[in-house]
User: Fold this.
Amino acid sequence: MRFAALACIVFASSLLSAQSPERVTLEGNDVAIYNLVGRLRVEGGGGSTVMVEVTKVGRDASRLKLETGQIRGRMALRIRYPDNRIVYSDASWNGRTNFNIADDGTWGDDQHGGGDRRRIEVSSRGDGLDAHADLHVIVPQGKTLILRQGVGETTIDNIDGKLSVTVSASRVRVSHVRGSLQLDAGSGGVELTDITGDLSLDCGSGGTMLDGVRGGSLTMDIGSGSLRGRNVDVSQLTADVGSGGVRLSAVKSPRIHLESGSGGADLELLTSPTDVSIEAGSGGVTLRMPASSSASVDVETGSGGVDSDFDVKLSRIEEHALHGTIGSGKGRIKIEAGSGHVRLMRN
Assistant:
């Protein structure tokens, strides 16, 4: 009973530390939002302006300032943090990270935001400013939206427009986006569901999961953590994974290039290959294709063998290599594996 009462007291205290939400309207077709700490929820809505509901939370919440105005040709909202050290205790994040903030309150825009920069540290423990801002953003159709989110869970759903998103730490979930999405996630992992249009993903660590990406080009650069996906139908697919391996199923794309430093690669195609290139440092490669597939085949392995469910007309015989054609040889398959087995399999 004592522990239950203590939990109630802590919960009540957290409620009291949250201020009443403030609403901000951002005019124009091109807007930006910058926040270092807190939860970010973005969803589609009606109207003609981007609406942001800001809830300041924490013992020092009143010290946070909201600033709006034109930044580099677009209307921007910036959450200003007055101290150089911020404490953020949240079940979704445990760690420490640093940010270099420009004089205008922006960050994550590469060379933009001139003048002196201030270094801010965010930590899950210790002393510092006990304040963060939770944001709920409503985005009408057709907007261009730049989001710079530091630490805190990020959820984006049902957007029709152009998105550029940078998140430093914590999990990112994006679903039902039509238009284009450029996502740079530092750590915490990424889940992408039902994305239509061009997609560019740069993920430092934590792994990536895809389910339903279609329409445009798909480019992924993942430092560490596995890449898993299914139901991909794009004009071009490029993926570079440092470690963790690749497993993609139910893929349709005329041009595919996969690189995996370690962990191997497993790719299932629903259509006959047109131009497929796979490089794996270690872990082996499995390529699954329709029985009717035809392509020229060049496979090389540093160690391990090559197995094929398909009849291959050999053009050249080498140790740990396979060179020839499947069927009419219309498409192209090139596989290089540093170690591990290579398998060409029928679906």
Remarks:
- The helical segments are 2-16.
- The first strand starts at residue 22 and ends at 26.
- Residues 2-16 form the longest helix (15 residues).
- The CA atoms of residues 161 and 179 lie 5 Å apart.
